[in-house]
Amino acid sequence: MNRKLFGTDGIRGTANAGSMTAETALKVGMAAAAQFTRGDHRHRVVIGKDTRLSGYMIEPALTSGFVSMGMDVFLVGPMPTPAVAMLTRSLRADLGVMISASHNPFYDNGIKLFGPDGFKLSDAVESEIEARIAGDMSGDLADPAKLGRAKRLDDAQGRYTEHVKRTFPKGLTLDGLKIVIDCANGAAYKVAPDVLWELGAEVIPIGVSPDGFNINSECGSTYPQTMCETVVAHGADIGISLDGDADRVLISDENGQLVDGDQLMALVAGSWSQADRLQGGGIVATVMSNLGLEHYLTGIGLELVRTKVGDRYVVEHMRQHGFNIGGEQSGHIVLADYGSTGDGLVAALQVLAVAIQSDGPASESCRPFEPLPQLLRNVSFKDGQPLDDEDVKKSIAAGETRLSGTGRLLIRESGTEPLIRVMAEGADETLVHAVVGDIVNAVERAAG
User: Fold this and answer.
1) Fewest C-beta atoms under 10 Å: which of 6, 137, 308, 396?
2) Do 231 and 272 fall into the same domain?
3) Out of 54, 64, 68, 102, which one is annotated catalytic?
4) Residue 102 appears among annotated catalytic residues
């Protein structure tokens, strides 16, 4: 069946409207509980959230849905998405739920589901959950004596903190490093500064005063300027910027220059390959990753495998083919040795480990390759299918012809927002800008 609720990263939308209401959350809890109730044991679910105001609405609605089906609920409060995945496995839970719209503004929210193995659900399972929501679930309701219970998991932060610290190489410390950490006023606002400080760093925290409205607002990995400027202002050695649910990360060097996910994957992959730790003969990334990454990996005897956009699809390929590094240019980096989903803090620690061992500044150690000129522009639309417009099709075909042999063009509709994403890259930066500009103009005309 065609999925109506689930997109590329769970369910997402404007809070208290459309698919992101308390009623929908209640039904999602009921349907997910029915989907994952298997056997006679006492079933349990872990629920985490970020710092959005609407989390106070969605969390109890989900809880009611799970409890009504006889499932016990462990509430962990504001915690990173990867922490929920880790705790789901650690607690032998049947299901994990993260309430977050990731990098979106506060007025959006979302629901991400994890199976008992800590991995995001497949398209097929999400479709089955949607079918349950559309059907009659009254027959699955628990008897009064078998209703679930809900309780707070008080040591969730400590469990995750120790898990993250164990991923940092033994024998290394962050002693002597001054690190800016931007937590986006989001889910990692408590745990991320603590981890860095406990490993020895002098920590300059920003984006650690959430008020329900300021998540991702002029901070975090979607607004890295704040981190970069703070690094320069404080003379820091490096900056780390997370997004609202802390499953992605970007880095700033000591000069305030941004380092994206492609560079970070290349850095860790090269280090792990030298240490004979890299599995799969390369890394898994998406169609958005820069050609420069591909050329760099080829030059050191490694492969770049591309999937469609979405860290879930990266992880699926990694699992099927035995890779242990994958991710996205946006900063979702999945290190399968340490977790089942993107973890911005864990990835940052691996980058710091390589930087420390290189014995040079971040500006030298964190950029292993020179990216090809790349331009990405987003065009918003309200209704219709702009990509079906004939003028848009002609513009795209002309762009592909102009870039043929020297670059590539990628046009796609966002899976989480009403946007058309237009990306081109190639050796000629002027040509790249011209091609993108022509296509964007055509899409804007078609979108009205």
Assistant:
1) 308
2) no
3) 102
4) yes
